[in-house]
Amino acid sequence: MESPEKLPPVPQEIIEQETANPKKALDNEYAELQEQMIANLQKPNLPNVNVPEKIIICLDVCYDDPSSLFRLGDGTTYTPINMLKRVLDFFIHSKHAINKRTEFALVVLKDTVPYFVQNFTNNLKDILSAIDYVNAEESKSESFDFQKLFEILKQEIEIPEYKQSDCIIPPPYVVRMIVLFARSNCIPVISQEDPYFNFLKKQLYFYIDILLAHEEDCALYKCAEVYDSLQDLDNGYSYVFEISKNATKIHDCIAKLLAHPLQRPLQKNTDYTFSSKT
């Protein structure tokens, strides 16, 4: 048997590059950590306390395709509205277990008009019955004007006032609106000139989170346009998620929304990985 050819020596510059990589990775990790710290320091000085939440659930009941389904691992299928009801059941029970003073209200987003269905309550039976009662509707409109929703909020909610002199004193509660939008061909209209919306964006004890559950084939729908429009609700402190008809991912997203607004980092700084010490 012939002996194998002798391999050429590894160039010195490659050796130096390889040995330098650990330091480079460490530097990158340090720079990223520094950026996260600066971003968090730029947040307003708010008390990091698990005060009660008043959570407004904005549930979109409209659908684009009646045959579009979520499918679990065991083969069980759910229509979009029933899957949203399922994850809301998990979310509400979990939040109640964390803090029994958490209150929930329900606003239903129909074709063009929102309806305030359930006022704030910490009675699980009341809020879950209200959610279970709503029915799905076919989406017929090309746009949904959020100004009507802002008018409802103006009438129905009271937001604790933030005072710089008392910034270390926890508020009695915070208000959070969670928008669960299920349409892929209906563009949300969110006017940046709306006076009450501008008021809401300046309130440090008011938060808006967004979960978009769109159709799978975005080439046939306006998924990107809908997602981009919904992000106009973000004042910099929102958590924004988008998923297609994926049952696992929608449960993951609703679980991430369990985090308390006063205790969670900015979304871009979140890390859900587990690491073990060696």
CATH architecture name of the largest domain: 3-Layer(aba) Sandwich
Proportion of residues in extended strands: 15-25%
Report the C-alpha radius of gyration, rounded.
23 Å
Main β sheet profile: 6 strands, mixed
- What's the assembly state of these chains? single chain
Distance separating the two termini: 46 Å
Mean pLDDT: 87
Q: Quickly give the structural class.
A: alpha/beta
Helix content: 25-40%
What is the name of the CATH class of the largest domain?
Alpha Beta
What is the H level of CATH, i.e. the homologous superfamily of the largest domain? Answer: von Willebrand factor, type A domain
Uncertain segments are 1-7
Strand order of the largest sheet: 6-5-1-9-11-12
H-E order? HEEEEHEEHEEHEEHEHEH
What do you see in this structure?
The protein has 278 residues and is α/β, with parallel strands linked by helices. The protein has two domains: 16-43; 53-262, 3-Layer(aba) Sandwich (Rossmann fold), CATH 3.40.50. Helices cover 34% and strands 21% of the residues. The chain has seven helices and twelve strands. The chain has helices at 12-41, 80-98, 124-133, 147-156, 195-201, 223-230, 247-256; strands at residues 53-60, 62-63, 70-71, 77-78, 103-109, 114-121, 137-138, 143-145, 174-181, 187-189, 206-213, 240-243. The strands form four sheets. A six-stranded mixed beta sheet has the order 6-5-1-9-11-12, sandwiched between helices. Strands 2-7 form a two-stranded parallel ribbon. Strands 3-4 form a two-stranded antiparallel sheet. Helix 2 runs antiparallel to helix 3 and helix 2 (80-98) runs parallel beside helix 7. It is globular and about 55 Å long. The two termini are 46 Å apart. Residues 1-7 have low confidence and may be disordered.
